[in-house]
Amino acid sequence: MASWKRFRTVGGLAAAVTAVVLIGGSPAAASGDYSGLAFIRGGDGFSDDWNDEGILSTGRHSSSNATCLWQKVLWADGHLAWNEIDGVFGDTTRQATIAWQRAYVGSADGVVGKDTFKKAGQWLRDTNGDGSVDTYRGTADRTFLVSRDGDGDYTFYDRNGDKRVAGYNYRTCG
Fold first, then answer.
1. CA separation for the pair 105, 98 (Å, rounded)
2. What does the pLDDT look like over 132-145, one tens digit per residue?
3. What's the structural domain count of the chain?
4. Cβ 61 vs Cβ 168: under 8 Å
């Protein structure tokens, strides 16, 4: 149920501002679904960083940098071609996700959720010995650089070599 309230502006202006105040109802869906964060994020040790990430599918965050990062995982594990990494979760990415889930999770629905992200997180590595994640080591003998920025948000390089932050609500990766 919405309640309308009017607020007067200060400084003697005659205009009024109308605002909607929501009472009850459910809040908007969080970007990270489980974490509520706008980015794929981690902190402290990286071994459990991907245990509470958002949902990626043809209907959720289907055009995003988070999807682009997931596509790099699919590529590193041999389920997606390099030229298919575009940040769009379409049918090709869905089918590749199903194949990936069958290989590593057991059950397959083509939706990247907690169990799928958690399983992928097992291949995050610290190859330079500084205690932070710096690599995703795929099972198809392919590796890509991935790291956390100062806020703990995951960054990666897209297929054009540009550094990107893995956000759920926008797509800039190429």
1. 10
2. 788 999 998 899 99
3. 1
4. yes
Q: Are the C-beta atoms of 69 and 75 separated by less than 8 Å?
A: no
What is the residue range of 100's domain?
46-165
The answer to the question of residue 40 being in a domain is no
CATH code: domain of residue 50:
1.10.101.10
Q: Is 19 part of a structural domain of the chain?
A: no
The pair of structure tokens assigned to 75 is: 């590529």
Q: Quick one: average pLDDT of 20-47? A: 59
The predicted structure's pLDDT at residue 169:
93
Separation of alpha carbons 154 and 156, rounded Å: 7
Distance CA 163, CA 14 (A): 48
Residue 147 lies in a domain: yes
Alpha-carbon distances of 66 from 5, 133, 156, rounded to whole Å: 38, 17, 10
Residue type, 105: V
Which helix (H) or strand (E) segment holds residue 114: the answer is helix 114-120
Secondary structure class of 134 (helix, strand, coil): coil
